[in-house]
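Q: I have 144 residues here and want to know how they pack in 3D. Can you give me a structure?
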Amino acid sequence: MYRVMDIARYVIERCSATNKTISNLKLQKILYFIQAEFLVSKNVPCFAEEIQAWDFGPVVPDVYYTYRMFGSANIPCIGKSRVTQIISSRDKEILDGIIDECSRYSASALVELTHNQTPWIEAYKPGWNNEITTESIKRYFEVD
């Protein structure tokens, strides 16, 4: 299992390397889909940090607050970090697949997609920031 900040950094670096923009909103949705893929394909979470149901979809609060200074703008990649060294090559393949697929869509399209999925629907209550459990994510994506 990885630290969510390392996975977020990897997503930012991958988007930069492939000339894709990555806003904080889009980053949040990609982290949600990464968690779903790990839960289904590896039967373990990618990261332990909680995903919450916010107004604009799933959010990992630690990551949100770290990058909120960029607002809806692209998060810049400031050099290479050590994250590529700590993530296994097999996990990089999984991450790259999710990042590449999700980066084709706008942040608003990803918000709309997550708003139509059971894990967010069941957890969301305005202003409550309820947890979207790994169990609900796994259950939803195993079926679909």
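Q: Anything worth noting?
A: Residues 2 and 26 are 20 Å apart (CA to CA). The chain has eight helices and three strands.
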